């Protein structure tokens, strides 16, 4: 059981990560960084984590190793995690490719201070890469259903896209910030031309904050 300090370039504002739901993510995206650790167990609830002191004043990424709102994760597991979070005075960060499901827990279960993020790697559908993850348009629709909750979008790993379509998707999500990163795992993904990335960034800066992760430099500065 542990509250792990956030390291690397995940998100500049995250102080810690905490994972009570563990195991192989049902989405099974081909590029998932967890796959580098070898074969994973099926999803499970780690009861030992409910002895962890989450402290106060932290900004905690909950479920950084698995999408806890993925279809297939039992409601009772999610409710137990959310109830535990409410016992501590922190801000919580939930990133999910299934944001619509969060609505099932809004009224009674969610902690007081949290924000929602979804991943939109592209506007296109790459079935052999995204596997069981919800389609991009479904993620966007889910995000549009939250009007008063702070929202973020992450475009990582960025994959080849259509500029207008991707911009429109991000615009519809109305995020406070967009984080953009590239494939750090050498997964041979279809990647966009650097000029297209730079144009997207310039357009996004007109509507929201944009944070470029350090791993984007490989593409961004490419001639």
Account of the 3D structure:
This protein is α/β, with parallel strands linked by helices. It has a single domain, classed as TIM Barrel (Alpha-Beta Barrel). Helix content is 22%, strand content 17%. It contains 6 helices and 10 strands. The protein has helices at residues 75-85, 127-130, 136-144, 163-173, 194-204, 217-220, and strands at residues 4-5, 16-18, 21-22, 44-45, 59-62, 91-95, 114-119, 151-155, 177-180, 209-212. The strands form 2 sheets. An 8-stranded mixed beta sheet has the order 1-2-5-6-7-8-9-10, covered by helices on one side. It has a two-stranded antiparallel sheet with strand order 3-4. Helix 1 (75-85) links the parallel strand 5 (59-62) and strand 6 (91-95). Helix 3 (136-144) packs parallel to helix 4 and helix 4 packs parallel to helix 5. The mean pLDDT is 94.
CATH class reads Alpha Beta
Oligomer: single chain
Radius of gyration: 17 Å
The helix fraction, in percent, is 10-25%
Major β-sheet profile: 8 strands, mixed
Termini distance? 46 Å
**Do you know the CATH topology?**
TIM Barrel
Could you say which overall geometry the principal axes of the C-alpha atoms support? Answer: globular
The count of domains is: 1
Strands in their spatial order, largest beta sheet: 1-2-5-6-7-8-9-10
What do we call the CATH homologous superfamily? Aldolase class I
Total E-strand runs: 10
Mean pLDDT: 94
Question: pLDDT under 50 segments (min length 5)?
Answer: none
What would you say the CATH architecture is?
A: Alpha-Beta Barrel
Helical stretch tally: 6
What portion of residues belong to β-strands? 15-25%
Structural class: alpha/beta
Question: Would you list the SSEs in sequence order as H and E?
Answer: EEEEEHEEHHEHEHEH
């Amino acid at each position: 059981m542990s509250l792990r300090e956030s390291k690397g370039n995940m998100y500049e504002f995250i102080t810690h990560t905490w994972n009570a739901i563990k195991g192989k993510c049902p989405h099974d995206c081909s590029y998932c960084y967890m796959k580098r650790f070898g074969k994973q167990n099926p999803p499970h609830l780690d009861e030992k984590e409910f002895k962890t002191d989450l402290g106060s004043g932290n900004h905690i990424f909950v479920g950084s190793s698995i999408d806890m709102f993925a279809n297939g994760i039992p409601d009772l597991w999610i409710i137990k995690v959310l109830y535990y979070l409410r016992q501590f005075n922190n801000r919580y960060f939930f990133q999910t490719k299934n944001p619509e499901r969060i609505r099932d827990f809004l009224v009674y279960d969610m902690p007081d201070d949290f924000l929602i993020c979804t991943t939109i790697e592209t506007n296109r559908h790459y079935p052999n890469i995204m596997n069981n993850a919800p389609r991009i348009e479904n993620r966007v629709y889910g995000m549009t259903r939250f009007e008063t909750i702070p929202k973020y979008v992450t475009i990582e790993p960025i994959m080849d896209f259509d500029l207008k379509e991707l911009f429109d998707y991000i615009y519809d999500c109305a995020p406070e910030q967009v984080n953009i990163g590239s494939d750090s795992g050498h997964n041979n993904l279809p990647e966009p031309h650097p000029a297209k990335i730079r144009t997207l960034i310039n357009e996004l800066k007109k509507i929201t904050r944009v944070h470029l992760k350090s791993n984007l430099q490989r593409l961004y500065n490419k001639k």
